[in-house]
Specification:
The chain has 15 helices and 24 strands. Helix 8 runs antiparallel to helix 10 and helix 14 packs antiparallel against helix 15. A hairpin with a 4-residue loop joins strand 8 and strand 9. The protein has 3 domains: 145 residues, Dipeptide-binding Protein, domain 1, CATH 3.90.76.10; 101 residues, Periplasmic binding protein-like II (D-Maltodextrin-Binding Protein, domain 2, 3-Layer(aba) Sandwich); 211 residues, Dipeptide-binding Protein, Domain 3 (Dipeptide-binding Protein, domain 3, Roll). With 530 residues, the protein is α+β, with helices and mostly antiparallel strands. It is globular and about 70 Å long. Strands 10-11-12-3-13-22-14 form a 7-stranded mixed beta sheet. Strands 19-17-20-15-21 form a 5-stranded mixed beta sheet.
């Protein structure tokens, strides 16, 4: 049934008041605008942005998936995950982890079941090809994301999506999900023009601030200002170029003036960028380092005592001190939760060699243990140093393990291709998200949970389903904390802790900020003074 904008907004108001659902609505359920722009897009006080110029950035964090496709125009295979240069999603996560409306103006559950969510789209948003974005495009985009398995964070709950008139969209889920809007912010979940199943998402056309000119799937891209961008007056710069580089190339390119910005710099090079006249911006957090241990094979870490011994043997404070020069900051708690999440529950002890040795002895390994090698791809420049600290820490408890570095190109396919669906033992990164997604990974992600089974795994899955169906936010917080305790008691995976995302930019580049969610970085509010 088609509905008008007024009727849709009235429906949202009815949903909130009639069912008492306000405690679980994530982010803003109604659009707020300032001078015709979303409130979250406001510039710093006193800003007087200039227009024109070109931002050329280096990126040390390539997209793992680029080796799986030759089509860099597809958002899944965009060279560095920073898809919001070309595309938009329905919502965006801001620097404080709040959900903000991007292509969606507002949203709310239609009733108290939390299985049906209605979204109101912005009107007048134009694609790069001159076509207006409507509900038809959103429905087609999400059907494509489901068919192409674009995000495991939505496929588990998605049943169908329907148009509600020209500017309304309804998501129907197969189970209650109190924080569904947050899941729609993922970098892959871009909105593209409706097209045939084999063509949609393949042409590089989006609604973003820049229009794609050319792309080399493994090297870089060039784009120009979208003069019809839905945020009027944005972007400020005329041209945008991004290139995947290693750490040394990044600093050399910055010194020579080839780059006027570099994303995800090696923390140890911050002083070098500053010495070259750069300004370093450091986010509150960043991706976390996870060690995935498949447990369907005949491996010693099938015993949870060995897994816990491994965790307690890793000196994570040494990682913070040596790699990040940031002693005393948070360390991983062996869940995919970030220390930035208010629900985060630290382990009672994160480093305890004596207890680790005792656990190994109880598991039948009083003289230590040799474990199979783990592979990793250096997603971030400092990752090899982190893994070296892990290897040396484990040795102190009598745990011998080789952690081998592999090229990024093709790494994801290699890991998944050995022992599917759980993959081979590997180390990787998980991005910081809200607790519903963070903790849901150990239910929905086969590789990360690595065939975790048993009484505690069953209890975890049951409690997680109850948690995301709970409409009261404060109750959910307590349940999220209990879920973390279950994981810590069985250690199905090891999470070392998280990096602090950092970027460097030339003094003339203004308002370019590092985001704790690397893929949520934006370019529509950046300008160049000279």
């Amino acid at each position: 049934m088609a509905i008008t904008k007024r009727e849709f907004l009235q429906l949202l108001g009815l949903g909130v008041s009639a069912f008492g659902v306000q405690p679980f609505i994530t982010g803003s359920a109604a659009a707020q605008t300032v001078d015709g722009l979303p409130a979250w897009a406001a510039l710093p006080a006193g800003s007087n942005p200039k227009t024109g110029g070109k931002l050329i950035y280096g990126q040390t964090y390539p997209n793992w998936a680029v080796g799986s496709s030759d089509n860099g125009k597809h958002p899944y295979y965009w060279i560095d995950l920073l898809t919001r240069s070309i595309w938009n999603s329905l919502v965006w996560i801001d620097h404080d982890y709040n959900v903000q409306g991007e292509l969606a103006e507002s949203w709310a559950p239609s009733d108290g079941t939390l299985k049906v969510w209605d979204f109101k789209l912005r009107e007048g948003v134009m694609f790069h090809n001159g076509k207006e974005m409507t509900s038809e495009d959103v429905v087609a985009s999400f059907n494509a994301h489901i068919a192409q398995k674009g995000s495991s964070f939505i496929t588990k709950w998605f049943e169908k999506v329907e148009a509600q008139g020209k500017y309304g969209v309804r998501f129907i889920l197969n189970a209650p999900y109190a924080e569904w809007p947050y899941a729609l912010a993922e970098y892959r979940l871009a909105i593209a023009p409706a097209a045939a199943p084999d063509l949609i998402l393949t042409d590089g056309i989006g609604t973003g601030p820049f229009k794609l000119v050319s792309v080399d799937n493994r090297r870089g891209f060039q784009a120009v200002r979208n003069e019809n961008y839905w945020m009027k007056g944005r972007p400020f710069i005329d041209e945008l170029e991004g290139y995947v580089v290693n750490s040394q190339t990044a600093i050399n390119g910055f010194r020579s003036g080839q780059f006027n910005a570099v994303f995800n710099i090696d923390p140890t090079t911050a002083a070098q960028f500053e010495g070259a006249g750069g300004i370093v911006h450091k986010s509150k957090g960043g991706d976390q380092f996870l060690i995935s241990m498949p447990k369907n094979l005949d491996i010693a870490w099938n015993d949870p005592r060995v897994r816990l011994a491994m965790s307690l043997s890793i000196d994570r404070e040494a990682i913070n001190t040596i790699v990040y020069n940031d002693p005393g900051s948070w360390v991983g708690n062996d869940t995919q939760m970030s220390g930035l999440n208010r629900e985060f529950v630290p382990r009672d002890k994160a480093f305890d060699i004596a207890t680790a040795k005792k656990l190994l002895a109880e598991a039948g390994h009083p003289n230590g243990i040799d474990l199979p090698p783990i592979v990793f791809s250096p997603s971030f420049p400092e990752m090899p140093r982190i893994m070296a600290i892990v290897v040396e820490s484990l040795k102190k408890a009598g745990i011998n393990m080789d952690i081998r570095e592999m090229p990024t190109d093709g790494f994801d396919a290699y890991v998944k291709g050995v022992n599917p669906p759980y993959g081979r033992p590997s180390a990787g990164v998980v991005g910081p998200r809200n607790p519903a997604i963070n903790l849901g990974r150990m239910v929905a992600n086969d590789v990360e949970k690595g065939a975790w089974t048993g009484e505690k795994a069953d209890a975890y899955a049951k409690l997680y389903a109850e948690t995301i169906a709970e409409p009261n936010e404060e109750k959910r917080i307590g349940m999220y904390q209990e879920l973390q305790k279950i994981l810590q008691s069985d250690t199905p995976a090891i999470v070392l802790g998280g990096r602090r995302n950092m970027l460097a930019h030339a003094p003339g580049v203004q308002n370019l900020k590092s985001h704790s969610q690397n893929w949520s970085s934006r370019f529509d509010d950046v300008w160049i003074e000279s």
